[in-house]
Amino acid sequence: MSDKNDLAEDRTDWAEDRTILANERTFAGWLRTGMAAVAVAIGLRAVFGEFEPTWVAKAVASVFIIAALYVYWAAQASAAKTQKRLSDHHAHAQPNSRMKILAILLAFASAGVGAILWML
Questions:
Q1: What confidence tens digit (pLDDT) does each residue in 95-106 have?
Q2: pLDDT at 46
Q3: Burial 27-49 (b: 16+ CB within 10 A, else e)
Q4: Domains of the chain: which residue ranges?
């Protein structure tokens, strides 16, 4: 009977490891979504060029920048919440601090892109 319990515990541990890795993939997917929103903001500048009035195109681009900032924040918060509930066994989970730093760096870079778009 002990062997069956050990195997069941192993399967549970592996399932938890898979969930941790899925959480990291989801986090990365959300970061890609945020960067895509920034790319759309940059693309609007390229597509609309000297659109008049310029503030309209800049405002629309800013909406995409703000969306990217929200996506970064939500991705980090969700990933951290999920990670707190899980324990890694054989998979080595990324620390929450690393995910937070990455989200913060992308947020600052995206805000910088937004500032540059307003200066153009």
A1: 889 999 999 999
A2: 82
A3: beebbeebbebbebbbebbeeee
A4: 2-119
